[in-house]
Design a protein that fits this description.
The strands form two sheets. A five-stranded mixed beta sheet has the order 3-2-1-4-5. Strands 6-7 form a two-stranded antiparallel sheet. The protein has 14 helices and seven strands. The N and C termini lie far apart (64 Å). With 355 residues, it is of the alpha/beta class. Helix 10 runs antiparallel to helix 12 and helix 12 packs across helix 14. It is globular, with a radius of gyration of 26 Å.
Length: 355
């Protein structure tokens, strides 16, 4: 009996999971062979029951693709004592045959085989608290998108029936006076009037909900987890309260980036490169990016050049040899460098200091 247990302890299991809503495809490899591929219910407990009954003392390493199922699967598997990687799908090598014959079992075997070869790295798995705060901020962004969509529908309805907006209201800011005008303006039919009125009701509801959500997001700045770092970030010109909380929830621990190069690659300001022989070429920004952070930092960079003399001088120099859009991307990268320095060394930013 002891020999059997010792033999089981020496077994390393590499498990690839192709996760779906109704079932999971699971492939189990040892360090030498493919043991089994099977379909199971979408529960971590079902996988644990199988492993406990067949390999009760084995060392287990699992992996699945990052996506809409988040990190709860990884946390549950880790609670069983398993190692679990959440992998960017783009980092999983695929043969031509696998690409042409894509099925759930093929995908799970591909993950397990690559895991067995030691070729996978896990995405960062945040705590449940940080993940919840991140979701709250993202929800606020979605509400803002909903507001913009409703505004466009209202303007589109008016344009379709030939109603021209007064010059003082033809802008992005919707004042109380403009909303009152929308509710009173004469429209060509009763149904058209009803359509605009219903859109205004929807706008009012989402706008109030957006304000409540924004208040909840701002309260995060006063929590012990974020308060000090948020104050440090706001010493950087161009970084306001909302951008600060976005950075802190999306990046979490700055120490997880050993160098600025890794942070820069994560956000997506790293250019694509081609080097062969005597040719050394740099192209567009990498398609691997954190879309929301990269967009937010480019937007903040426009404020930075207006408020920070060192950044303004650099921007003027850049625009002499490239377009303004390219120049502001370089400034955004420098802004990210300042963010990294401030968080890593816990020092407030000094305006005009060139790093």
């Amino acid at each position: 009996m002891d020999n059997k247990v010792n033999e089981q302890r020496s077994i390393d299991l590499f498990i690839g999971i192709d996760v779906h809503k109704r079932n999971w495809s699971v492939s189990i490899f040892t360090s030498q062979i493919h043991h089994k591929t099977f379909s199971q219910s979408p529960e971590t407990e079902a996988l644990k029951v199988y492993i406990d009954s067949h390999f009760p003392a084995a060392k287990v390493t699992c992996a699945y693709e990052a996506g809409r199922f988040g990190f709860w699967i990884a946390r549950k598997l880790q609670s069983y004592g398993y190692q679990c990687l959440v992998v960017n799908p783009a980092d999983i090598p695929s043969t031509s045959q696998e690409s042409q014959n894509k099925t759930d079992p093929v995908d799970s075997r591909k993950i397990a085989r690559t895991l067995q070869a030691g070729l996978l790295n896990s995405s960062y798995i945040p705590s449940e608290t940080v993940e919840g705060d991140r979701q709250l901020f993202r929800y606020r962004k979605r509400l803002w998108s909903d507001l913009v969509r409703i505004k466009n529908r209202i303007k589109g309805t008016l344009m379709f029936v030939g109603v021209t907006l007064p010059a003082q209201y033809d802008n992005a800011y919707w004042s109380k006076a403009f909303l009152r005008w929308l509710s009173e303006v004469s429209l060509p039919s009763v149904s058209c009037r009803k359509t605009v009125d219903l859109l205004l009701v929807q706008y009012d509801h989402i706008y109030k909900h957006f304000l409540n959500t924004s208040t909840a997001v701002r309260k995060l700045l006063r929590t012990a987890r974020y308060q000090d770092n948020a104050k440090l970030l706001q010493t950087i010109p161009g970084i306001g309260p909302l951008t600060a909380i976005q950075l802190l929830t999306e990046l979490d621990e700055i120490k997880r980036f050993p160098s600025f190069k890794q942070l820069n690659s994560f956000v997506g300001f790293k250019p694509t490169t081609y080097s062969s022989g005597n040719h050394d070429w740099k192209g567009h920004l990498s398609i691997r990016k954190h879309k929301a952070l990269r967009s937010a930092l480019v937007e903040c960079a426009w404020q930075t050049v207006q408020k920070d003399p060192a950044m303004l001088i650099k921007y003027d120099q850049l625009t002499k040899r490239m377009t303004k859009k390219r120049a502001i991307v370089v400034i955004a990268r420098k802004l990210l460098s300042r963010i990294y320095h401030v968080l890593k060394y816990q020092e407030p930013y000094q305006i005009g200091l060139v790093r």
